[in-house]
Fold this protein.
Amino acid sequence: MLLLLHASLPGLTTPPTKNWIPFLRRPLYLDETYAADVGFDPLKFVEREGPWWELAGAATAHRRVAWMREAEIKHSRIAMLAAAGWPLSELYHGPLAGAAGLPFGLDPTQGRAPSLLNGNLAESAPLLVLAVLFASYLECRTLDQVHGLTATGRTLRAGQPVELTYSPGDLGFDPLSLYDFWGRLMPPLVEARAAVDDEYRLDWLVYHRRVMEAAEIKNGRLAMLAITGFAFQEALWGVPVVDQTPILFTPLP
């Protein structure tokens, strides 16, 4: 029976990722260690020497790639929050301020969200200071969560085998267990085999966690482009982005 299950289940090997431009050679240091690695480093930032690598303690290419992935995922998360918060602030600041009996705070920017290019950031200075302090606190708490210092390997936790891996940007915060969402949705044949094969169960969970990591970083990259577009659109046209393309931000009639 186990042989039949083994033959009927698809392999869990991650398929090779295509290069971002097919005819360009993939740098050797981009070896698909991390999710959503498409071989994109056209300016060869990893190979550029500078004092910043000494400060980061990244002397080798692998450490540098890990350091840059840490920066990318953290910027991605901020960008995803900003890409949602920017249009929401323009859509609902007025109604919420009116309901609370407060003045309309976007008058200085003609209804646009405060930003470096739109101005009016001084009004948000206390909140920005708190955000910087909170981010600094998180950075200090996770100084050992870097390539080469994080514990890896397989161990037991609450009697269940678990896989400890280095994951860039892992702050230990996943209250809804979203990283393991797809891993928990096992088809009947997979669930049957996982019940008797701990090795297969771990491989299944690790594979689908990587799928979620790829989804997070890809959405983050899109959000970084989007928030940059919001900022320049509003600076150039002087109109809130929700009014420039209302079909994207308001319900259809």
Notes: The first strand starts at residue 153 and ends at 157. DSSP finds nine helices and two strands in the chain.
